[in-house]
Fold this sequence. Notes:
The protein is an alpha/beta fold and 192 residues long. It is 29% helix and 27% strand. It folds into two domains: 1-72 and 152-192, Rossmann fold, CATH 3.40.50; 74-149, no CATH class. The protein has helices at 39-47, 89-99, 104-118, 133-145, 170-176, and strands at 2-11, 14-23, 29-33, 54-59, 62-63, 74-77, 151-154, 179-184, 187-191. Helix 2 crosses helix 3 (104-118) and helix 2 (89-99) runs parallel beside helix 4 (133-145). The mean pLDDT is 90.
Amino acid sequence: MIKVDKLDVRLGAFALKDVSFTVPTGRYAVLMGKTGSGKSTLLEAICGLKPVAAGRIHLMGSDVTALKPADRGVGYVPQDLALFPTMTVREHLAFALVIRNWDAAAVDRRVAELADLLGLERLLERGTQGLSGGEAQRVALGRALSFGPRVLLLDEPLSALDALHVTHSAAEAKKLADLILLLEGGAVRATT
């Protein structure tokens, strides 16, 4: 479950004020809004990457507002993918596991599982430069999924995979989502 309660985020002149919504456990929600409305900022606040001025963030029943990003149990794929140019695909898939002190054999098994699931087996020893857009997104998704996060936040995760998903069409969102959240004027409302 994701519960955002009366959240305020301020970044210079931009602000999200009194944002509240709940995404029940096991549901798939789509957050929509115009460019610059604060969608990415809201996801970054939930992850702990942007400071919260007021309000609370609850994930799976726990208040995580004051926790560090690594302690929130959130897998996050940012819009720009944030791939490290000095790391191989294998190192990206292993990254979250290594920093969480998984043993080497468990890391190897999980990397193999993710590579198989995402079709990255033949790319494991390659660097990220030169990957296609779809390959890079699959690497970023694998990195976010690697440690089995309780919550997964995706900022336009399929934009390089299928042109359908780069649109802001409400009709398309309805086809994908159990819950659609519309961000307008700094406020979020659920739509049907």
